[in-house]
Amino acid sequence: MNLFISAISTDSGKSIVSAIFTEALQASYWKPVQAGFPTDTETVHELLPTKSEKIPEAYLLKYPMSPHASARRENIKVSLDNITLPKHSKEHMIVEGAGGLMVPLNDDEMVIDIAEKHNLPIVLVSNTYLGSINHSLLSIREIQRRGLDLVGIVFNGEKNEDTESVILKHAKVPCLLRLPQLEDLEAETIKKYASIVKENLIANNIITISEHA
């Protein structure tokens, strides 16, 4: 199984969530489009308790901004045609998007188009801040409009039952993880939450025990 990790906004904690899911599934990790340094590939691999191969980005851009803007500064054209799933050594692969779903890759294509092109099931990271319900529901509606498979929500930040309940009602998918604001980003922390994710993926029939024996 391949999963696409995206979010309702930038700086959502996608890389931490990606590391947790990578560990939970003992998966390969891939960031197709990286804008700015240090790279999320380096960050994720530093966090992983179980090391995996490093898969190079399809596009490695210098500036920490929207891919289309960073690419324009470097006179590069990011094209969906050049973003193809890499070969990897694991049964599963976690693919991390850049920013939110509707962040532009170029003047016509968005991050969500990567998931759509490769038919990748999506895990959506929703942060708990004022306005996150609106951002979450807009992201969910776009996923649904395109007929893509939203497999679950990850809530990142202070727990807010009122916010979470309305998002889950409209998403019609389970919460796969509630992640507090983490101060301690060590391998053991990733391993702890990976165990929870694995249990929830199995409980919601997203993976089977035999797939992850």
Automatic annotation (TrEMBL):
Homodimer. Belongs to the dethiobiotin synthetase family. Keywords: ATP-binding, Biotin biosynthesis, Cytoplasm, Ligase, Magnesium, Metal-binding, Nucleotide-binding. Gene3D superfamilies: P-loop containing nucleotide triphosphate hydrolases. Its cofactor is Mg(2+). Catalyzes a mechanistically unusual reaction, the ATP-dependent insertion of CO2 between the N7 and N8 nitrogen atoms of 7,8-diaminopelargonic acid (DAPA, also called 7,8-diammoniononanoate) to form a ureido ring. It is found in: Cytoplasm. HAMAP family: BioD. Its EC number is 6.3.3.3. It catalyses: (7R,8S)-8-amino-7-(carboxyamino)nonanoate + ATP = (4R,5S)-dethiobiotin + ADP + phosphate + H(+); (7R,8S)-7,8-diammoniononanoate + CO2 + ATP = (4R,5S)-dethiobiotin + ADP + phosphate + 3 H(+). Its main location: cytoplasm. Mg(2+) binds at S15, D40, E96. The gene is bioD. GO terms for molecular function: ATP binding; dethiobiotin synthase activity; magnesium ion binding. This is ATP-dependent dethiobiotin synthetase BioD. Pathway: Cofactor biosynthesis; biotin biosynthesis; biotin from 7,8-diaminononanoate: step 1/2.
